[in-house]
Amino acid sequence: MISAPSGTGKSTLVQELLSRVDGVEFSVSFTTRGIRPGELDGRDYHFIDRDRFDAMIRSGEFLEWADVFEERYGTGRSVSLERLAAGRDLILDIDIQGGRQLRASGIDAVSVFILPPSFPTLKTRLERRASDSETQVAARLSMARSEANEVKYYDYVVVNDDLDAAVDQLITILSAERLRVSRRRLETEEVLSTFPAE
Ligand code: 5GP
């Protein structure tokens, strides 16, 4: 699970991670927000209307969901659990509210928070983004402070100063987490079974 204030470069980092590591999949969220130029329905998000989203909430179809910038975003429960059961690593790009829900759910999730190198850098990055209005930029900046405070509840922090270095750090986190004894029970047992009995 990856969270970050907007403008931190999280989407680019996630894309890089997905293209460089095998066995990882992006968890495609549901959202009520409009599709942006360059986005694809079913690849970036499942774009649905508010009525359908609310019906999904009522029928418990979300692992987590949240209101972000006046739109709704949520992670589908069944697909996520299926992919995890199939042994795939899922990358969830979710906000801090979703992060809290996931931690509380007891699901074995590793959480990574991406920070910009500084607030002024974040401001410049957001102002350069053509897709957002001035009001949207102001809203995202004022959210950034409180979001950044949430970093203390995450397992790892990556400062996105240099893209390649940040991607390398994400890969390091993933590689180390994959080597945890708790995730390698089968391999460990296989090796142990070759030892003579005590
Ligand atoms: P954007 O509209 O820029 O794609 O995303 C806005 C925010 O919504 C980002 O912080 C992103 O992490 C968050 N977000 C995207 N999908 C989900 C989701 O399924 N659940 C939650 N809680 N947040 C999400």
Please explain how this structure is put together.
The chain has 198 residues and is α/β, with parallel strands linked by helices. It has one domain (2-174): Rossmann fold, CATH 3.40.50.300. 45% of the residues lie in helices and 18% in strands. It starts with a strand and ends in a 5-residue tail after the last helix. It binds guanosine-5'-monophosphate (5GP). Guanosine-5'-monophosphate (5GP) binds next to strand 5, strand 6 and helix 4.
List the SSEs and their pairings.
Layout: E1 2-3, H1 10-20, E2 24-26, E3 29-31, E4 45-47, H2 50-58, E5 62-68, E6 71-76, H3 77-85, E7 89-91, H4 96-105, E8 112-115, H5 119-128, H6 134-149, E9 156-159, H7 163-178, H8 185-193
Parallel strand pairs: 1-8, 2-7, 3-4, 8-9
Antiparallel strand pairs: 3-6, 5-6
Helix pairs in contact: 1-7, 5-6
The protein binds guanosine-5'-monophosphate.
Question: What's this model, at a glance?
Answer:
This protein is of the alpha/beta class and 198 residues long. The protein is built from eight helices and nine strands.
